[in-house]
Every structure is written in C-alpha cells, then in structure tokens.
Design goal:
The chain is mainly alpha-helical.
C-alpha cells in the first residue's frame, strides 16, 4: 500500500526546513532554531514542571525511577522517529498511512485524537486556572480566553510556520529573561 502523494499529511510543513548547501555551521543552525524551539516547548511546559515537583514531593525517590525510565523511552522514540525521517523522508503519520490497513489507521486515529483531547483539556484548564490566579478573572472567562488563544495561534499558522516559530521563540526568550532577572 502506498500513500497518495497528493494526500501527504502536513504538506505545508513537510520538509520545510531548507538547509543551504555548503553553508556555515551558524547558517545551518539558524535553519533549525525554529523547529528546535517548537520541540523545546514540550520540555519547558510549566504544567510538566509542577507535575514533577508535586510528584517528587509526594513520592520522593520512588518516582525518580519512573521519570528516568519514561525519559529514556521518550529519547528512544525521538531517535527512532528521527531515523525514520532521515531514511524514508516520511514522518510517522505518513509511514503509518503507507504501511497499515485502513481500519487500523482509523482506530489509531481515534485513539490518538482521544489522547490529544485529554492532554489538551488539562492544558486549557491549567491555563485558565493560571489566568484566574494571576488576574482574578472568573474561571470560566479565563478558560474561554485560553480557548480563544488556541484559535488565534491556529489562525496565525495560515501566515506560515515561521511566524509560529518566531512567536514561540519570543515566548521562550521571555521565560529566559524572567528566570535570569
């Protein structure tokens, strides 16, 4: 089974990092800074930090083995996904579409969408609580503002992925400045 080239997933960002030939190290680094910033956000997510702090305070060193094991598994999965992309020039979704039967693809789609909804729900509610605590806004209004923020970012994606990378990089630099002041 071959994936249809016309139906390529995320075609607007697929292989979108243009690496200049015979470029200097700094030029090549600059080409990958935006995508790197997007990946780094997952590791800087305050929700992950607070979960780690509370879990560590509750379970002490017992949780450390779970954190170590899950981090090693995550690194292994990222390394395997990177190898898949380098060798086949496909992301995981494209490889899945090319090699799995249609029924299994739809089942995986449903499971992944449910997992995404569960994690996004926690992020939206957490951001709403943060806005409520910071500004004293009603909780429902704070959650509504967070939902609007998500739609705003999705609409900015229409302007190009580099714009999203610039916004995320600016937010990362803001966090860096706050931490060092």
């Amino acid at each position: 089974m071959k994936a249809h080239p016309k139906k390529q997933s995320l075609s607007e960002v697929n292989q979108s990092v243009r690496v200049p030939k015979n470029a200097s190290f700094l030029t090549t680094l600059r080409a990958f800074l935006g995508p790197g910033a997007l990946v780094a956000v997952g590791y800087m997510d305050p929700g992950n930090w607070i979960t780690s702090v509370v879990g560590g305070a509750s379970y002490k060193y017992l949780l450390l083995s779970v954190v170590l094991l899950s981090s090693l598994i995550a690194m292994q999965l990222q390394q395997m996904a990177g190898k898949l992309g380098i060798v086949s020039r496909q992301d995981l979704a494209q490889a899945t579409a090319a090699h799995l039967p249609k029924g299994l693809r739809y089942l995986l789609f449903i499971v992944i969408e449910l997992a995404l909804m569960a994690t996004d729900l926690a992020e939206v509610i957490g951001s709403g609580i943060a806005l409520h605590l910071l500004f004293g806004w009603p909780l429902l209004f704070s959650i509504f503002i967070t939902i609007l923020d998500v739609f705003l970012l999705l609409s900015i994606m229409k302007l190009g992925f580099r714009k999203i990378e610039a916004i995320v990089s600016t937010l990362i630099l803001t966090i860096l400045v706050i931490l060092f002041t």
